[in-house]
Amino acid sequence: MKRFVLFAAVQVLMGSLWAQQIASTRVMAQPCGQFYVDGTPFTNVAVFLWPVGSIHTLSIGESYPISDGVACEVTGKSWVDSNGNTVPPGGPTVTVVADPSITYYQTTAELDYRVNVVLDNEGLSVPLSCDLSANPGAGQLLVNQSCYYYDSQLWLPAGTLMIIQAIPPQGWVFAGWIPGQWSGITTASGSFTLVRPVTIGPVFLPGDPVTLLTSPPQMKLIADGTLLISPATLTWAMNSSHSLTGVDPQVDTIGRPWVWQSWSQGGPETQVYTTGGYLGPITLTANYALAGRVAFGTSPPGLQLTIDGRSNWPTYSFIWAVGSTHTISAPLQQASQGRQYTFDNWSTGIAGANQQYTVATTDQVGVTATYDVMGQLRILSSPGSVGVLVDGVACQTPCVIDRKPGTQAVVVAPASVQLTDMSRLDFTSWSDGAARQRTWTADTNVTTLMVNYQTSNLVKTVSNPASGATFQLSPASPDGYYVTNTNVTVTVVPQPGYKFTGWAGDVTGTSTSLQVNTSLPVYMIAEMKPVPFVQPTGVRNAAGDGTPPVAVAPGSLITIYGGALAPDTVAGPTSTLAQTLDGVTAQAGPELFPLLFVSPTQINAQLPSELTPGQYSLLVRGENQPDATATFTVRRNAPGLFTNPVGSKPYALAKHADGSLVTPASPAVQGETVALLGTGLGPYTGIAPDGLAIPAGMVLPLADTATIQSGGNTITPVDTVAAVGYVGITAIHLKIDSSLPSSTDAALTVTVNGFQSNQVLLPIK
What we know:
The protein is mostly beta strands. The longest helix has 18 residues, at about 1-20.
């Protein structure tokens, strides 16, 4: 029951809305017309919302002024609806019924502008007439083809195309228009679109009769942009300016050429002439000179010339006054269509590329600059571009060389051209089989040569670390480069103290020999692992080797040379010396060596004094690394002198009595006793404990006799004893006397039991 009541209510509401349906209707009199709707005035366009079926009255209004010079004219006499039908009964007032199917009613109107035609001409009496038959020579003003000779006022629709023309009377000239609201019209005739009120009025001024002549007569000239043939008569206003120009060149009635020469009033060929401020006849004459035709050319054709300082002439054919002189110039060398040419001569017979040419006749004359073609060498390369040397100057291919016929050029192709860090081009041949450095002799032809190259790639071998290995390559190459697609066998040769662990870079594997192909560059890294080793004869006197063979003496200081001997460089105490440093020990049999310091490449130690002469096996042992072994020789005496080098000179490590060093800046002096320091001279008469520095007050003389040699003299030291404060070092006390040279560096050696030390220098004052 409730649903039925709701439906009935909706029906009542919809019926009410239908009864109130609205029609939206526009009423128009565009663009400016006035009209009435139900007695109320409106302009242009109005929109109304009328109930459907309501009745309304439409009336057309009157034309009316809008502003000064602007008016609206209602042109419609009836109304038309949106369906294109005239609303009955067809008059200016109609009754309409609001209907949704009719969206507008319209009538017509137009916007008019006032056009003032003014012929006052600033008070001058100008003869004007629209009847030229009755008033010949009178002037006229034409506006849209209608003639006016008196002031008038016109009303015309907006957008009208206005065509105006001012025709001056005889003896008068057109001098412009009275300023108006249009723009761009400066001539006596023109057009514009009417978009606002305007005033049209020509300005005429009295004119001077002007006669334009030429010498000779009947030649052409140009006045104010118009081509004329003399004699010509014009009318120009007083104090007016006009453009004049000659026609240059031109031909008379019998075909002779003429060129402009002068104006009777003077000035350039193209000029602006201004009349005076009085009326009177004017005569102007353009004078022309008889001319000749001269055509310049080149052999071969198409080359460039410079005529009167200009080289960009559209043509090299000229008409010049007879007797006039001109500068003609031919470039000494120029290019055309890929060839080079050199100047030879002019057909006039006058020597030199630059000369003066005088026109002597009116006849057609031809003048030719003759050129010789240069020989050309074109150098190509394959593959790619390379830089060749031509007479020592670089030229990148494709390289073009031009030379005079008969001359020569030395051409050198590079032996190789680097493409990348690991790839290059290598010379193989010239296309004609000539040598890499060749000589070319130019003729008049074009010679093309191809220089051929082949690509070579580098097989680069690297050891990591750098000292870990060397390499053998088969086939061999002086620089590691091989022609593309060469098979190369590479073998790694580990150096002492290193073990090969595998390849890296562009290759992989653990074999010591690999074969690679050079289709691309190959970068090979041999990964090497350091292993401890002692060099052959790596156990040496710490001061310096003397008499061979290499040997060391018990109790002396020694140096062990090798690789991977210790993880780091570690120095031990100076007394008592340690037997283990950085986990490293050195021993011969059961005897451990007292150690001064250890490093990866060197160990300094004291050789135990208990060792007797003979051959021994050295064992260097460290933590977490393999043992290193070597054999060495022990003998009773193996003397060596310590040095204190200055530059490259092996100065002796020697001390003054006060303990300071003997140096070139503090040399030994006559009469003093200095101490030379050495090791390996042999045993002492007493016991020197291993690893302990000799204490002060302890005197341990050398058991064997030591002598000093210098300049052929044998000198007996003051004494030879264990050096106080040192381990394994002997002090040789030498008195400086006349047996030694002065003011020089004395060369010294020490000898014990026939074994001589290394040589040192002792500076003596």
